[in-house]
């Protein structure tokens, strides 16, 4: 028995077309948000994307997207998919392992409870976030789950720096585009609503 988590063909091509390095965090986020937008337009998953970059050099390891609905896997959030692909590519379950350059996770929206938990395990030393959970919930109606109120401090205590609000407006536009497209919001909230009706 096994499970396969993959990127849609367009995202494989787009990864191949990424530059060798992307210097600023804004430009790294711009690349990630572009993937989120394409994922909505091509209907290959939810309106979220994430990228793993070498923190100093800006070399993109992989940019991935949410794959929950096409794969039928609830944990195929952008962060999980991308970290798995990056670790597979780098050849280490620990992106902070000795001998490796530091890695940065760039995500189009604040991580949900599940993805938040995956960050310290991944070995990244930096997280860059666009839209806040509040924005994700208010615009798109996704339920991000219970997260520690001091989530940011808890990451920083583990040596993971957190940068929030980078290109949040652009990320929110993609969320709105997703809502306007009428694609399904697939979380527990939806199930609860269905159960009530
Ligand atoms: Zn998540």
**Which strand-content bin applies to the residues?**
5-15%
User: Please, what is the CATH homologous superfamily?
Assistant: Cytidine Deaminase, domain 2
User: What is the terminal-to-terminal distance?
Assistant: 37 Å
Shape: globular
CATH class: Alpha Beta
Number of strands: 5
Average pLDDT works out at 92
Structural class: alpha/beta
Q: Which ions and ligands are bound to the chains? A: zinc ion
Low-confidence stretches: 190-197
- Assign the CATH architecture: 3-Layer(aba) Sandwich
Quaternary organisation: single chain
Q: Domains counted in the coordinates: how many? A: 1
Radius of gyration: 16 Å
> How many individual helices?
9
Strand order of the largest sheet: 2-1-3-4-5
Give the SSE layout:
Blueprint: H1 9-16, H2 25-41, E1 49-54, E2 60-65, H3 68-71, H4 78-90, E3 103-109, H5 113-122, E4 126-131, H6 133-140, H7 151-157, E5 161-163, H8 168-181, H9 188-196
Parallel strand pairs: 3-4, 4-5
Antiparallel strand pairs: 1-2, 1-3
Helix pairs in contact: 2-8, 6-8
List descriptors.
5-stranded mixed beta sheet, alpha/beta, 5 strands, 197 residues, disordered C terminus, Cytidine Deaminase, domain 2, binds zinc ion
């Amino acid at each position: 028995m096994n499970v396969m988590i993959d990127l849609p063909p367009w995202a494989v091509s787009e990864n191949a077309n990424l530059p060798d390095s992307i210097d600023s965090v804004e430009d790294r986020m711009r690349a990630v948000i572009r993937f989120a937008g394409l994922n909505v337009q091509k209907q290959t998953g939810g309106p979220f994307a994430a990228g793993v970059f070498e923190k100093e050099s800006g070399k993109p390891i992989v940019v991935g997207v949410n794959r929950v609905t096409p794969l039928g896997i609830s944990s195929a959030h952008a962060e999980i998919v991308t970290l798995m692909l990056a670790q597979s590519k780098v050849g280490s379950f620990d992106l902070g392992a000795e001998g490796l350059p530091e890695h940065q996770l760039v995500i189009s929206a604040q991580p949900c409870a599940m993805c938040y938990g995956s960050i310290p395990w991944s070995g990244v030393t930096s997280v860059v976030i666009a839209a806040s959970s509040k924005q994700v919930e208010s615009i798109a109606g996704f339920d991000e789950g219970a997260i520690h109120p001091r989530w940011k401090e808890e990451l920083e205590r583990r040596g993971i720096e957190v940068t929030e609000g980078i290109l949040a407006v652009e990320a929110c536009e993609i969320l709105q585009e997703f809502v306007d497209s009428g694609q399904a919001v697939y979380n527990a909230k939806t199930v609860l609503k269905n159960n009530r009706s």
